[in-house]
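Field guide to reading this record: the first block holds the primary sequence, the second block holds the structure written as discrete tokens, and the final block holds curator observations. Each block starts with its own label. This record concerns Zinc finger CCHC domain-containing protein 17, catalogued under organism Eurypyga helias.

BLOCK 1 — SEQUENCE
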Amino acid sequence: QVATVTEYGAFIKIPGCRKQGLVHRTHMSSCRVDKPSEIVDVGDKVWVKLIGKEMKDDKLKLSLSMKVVNQGTGKDLDPNNVSLDQDERKKRMFRDYTSQKITLEAVLNTVCKKCGCKGHFAKECFVQPGGTKYSLIPEEEEEEVAAAGFEREKKTTLADNPSKKRKK
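BLOCK 2 — STRUCTURE
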């Protein structure tokens, strides 16, 4: 019987036992559950399976699952715990690889073994043998080129405006 419902799951009273167990929201259904209160209410009778027990601070914590039990008949749908093992493997597969990511600085400091230019790897090289070589523009030159382009653009727009007035 459901004793309380929280945002992360539901606590279940086990008949013939003083302990309560937690059905985490990930073990309520095979579908994603955002709000456990949409699945169960306090006082509902549900079928559960004991999937884990843990001693923490001299207290026994019971983990229960509803998704591996048929809620109509109470039949165990996962008698050999195959689906639970698969869920555990899925959790282990998602690791934090942020420390191993290549940063932009690391790519910029590389030199292509194929063409000898900076800023890309040989597998990303587009240079044909004997073709034009391209490399990165240093930051100072890049700012000067952008400023010169802006000045040219300004002059062309000023020159275009008087010609439009003459046509009218």
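BLOCK 3 — OBSERVATIONS
Helices lie at 82-93, 104-108, 139-167.
The longest strand covers residues 49-56.
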